[in-house]
Description:
The structure holds two protein chains of two kinds. Helices cover 44% and strands 1% of the residues of chain A. By secondary structure, chain A is mainly α. The N and C termini of chain A lie far apart (53 Å). By secondary structure, chain B is mainly α. Helices cover 47% and strands 12% of the residues of chain B. Chain B is built from eleven helices and ten strands. Classes of the chains: A mainly alpha, B mainly alpha. The interface between A and B is large, with 59 and 57 residues.
Amino acid sequence: xxxxxxxxxxxxxxxxxxxxxxxxxxxxxxxxxxxxxxxxxxxxxxxxxxxxxxxxxxxxxxxxxxxxxxxxxxxxxxxxxxxxxxxxxxxxxxxxxxxxxxxxxxxxxxxxxxxxxxxxxxxxxxxxxxxxxxxxxxxxxxxxxxxxxxxxxxxxxxxxxxxxxxxxxxxxxxxxxxxxxxxxxxxxxxxxxxxxxxxxxxxxxxxxxx
Amino acid sequence: xxxxxxxxxxxxxxxxxxxxxxxxxxxxxxxxxxxxxxxxxxxxxxxxxxxxxxxxxxxxxxxxxxxxxxxxxxxxxxxxxxxxxxxxxxxxxxxxxxxxxxxxxxxxxxxxxxxxxxxxxxxxxxxxxxxxxxxxxxxxxxxxxxxxxxxxxxxxxxxxxxxxxxxxxxxxxxxxxxxxxxxxxxxxxxxxxxxxxxxxxxxxxxxxxxxxxxxxxxxxxxxxxxxxxxxxxxxxxxxxxxxxxxxxxxxxxxxxxxxxxxxxxxx
Lengths: 210, 267
């Protein structure tokens, strides 16, 4: 019986450790050390190309996630998510679907916003860096969930189109400390590019849904 | 008993899920790497670095033999595996690369601009300080990673480095932890070590400095941090700045106790 108890304890401890590792960032941040880290970076980093030092400044969402170890108090979380939701600009004509083939190209392209990128270069979505998407691309990352057969599984509804458009535009409106960038909000992807990505996931003809 | 069986099975599943995340491609590269490490081109740079260490150079026509890497002037054995660390003469944290550059300035009389004009290996060649670093690193092969935490500034560097690691900013809201804070993740096919755990953090130390087959270049941890911050869409860390040493302190201390295997090989 003693062995049984010990094994159970070990097994439970193992699960806690594994699950703990699944949560992004452990624990709260220490303000004194954080302030020193920010001051040190501001002193020791230099602006290069399009990557200016202002990139080291936190906006409200980043600050809240940084301060709380990505686990903000619920009232602040709800308030900030609502603010982020209000930033989303849906296309004026109400059409959220573009060309899925072009969407695939945007999903493949991970360029943009680094100090080597030129100001005029349109960034890609870099979607495959983190997500499984189409059936013909085996080189996909696993930081995000699989999007394979997205529309087929979730339904080709107008509501789902709107959700996908909004999520790509500003992922922080739905999960404040999500790892996913706010592609529309920061001006990385244009309205037309986001529409193409919506089509990649939501067009029944898209290879994603075959 | 049923519960126990279920728990054991669950643990098995969790372990299996973790193992399958290791892609076949990366397993193949591991095999390739272990063959290549028998005859690593990094050894060439170790030899060049060793020769430079004893050669008189610079405006003061001095060798680097009196360079103090933290264990006393001229002591190289085991020094790399115990850096970054606090140096009283400059009252700051320095990693091995920063310290070697510092020695070339103070002992040989080079200006900071001269030494750091070409910080990293490129088509033009491998800078002397990179070869020296490779030599110094080779002299810690087979020794445990043992960054000191006895000085208050070393403990502070760990705490500040940890905050830097988790600090989200820039246009994509990325921190180091976005990619390196969770177990078993990949960017495309590339496995991402979880640098918040001991074994994960060991991967941030092991294999560096490393000979990269693509381009045939000897690359250092300062280079690796520079390229990470580029992909993080941050501005650029200045070469051999204290900020980089502080970040490396957090990862190095987390890796403490694992064995340093010497200069490595990269794809």
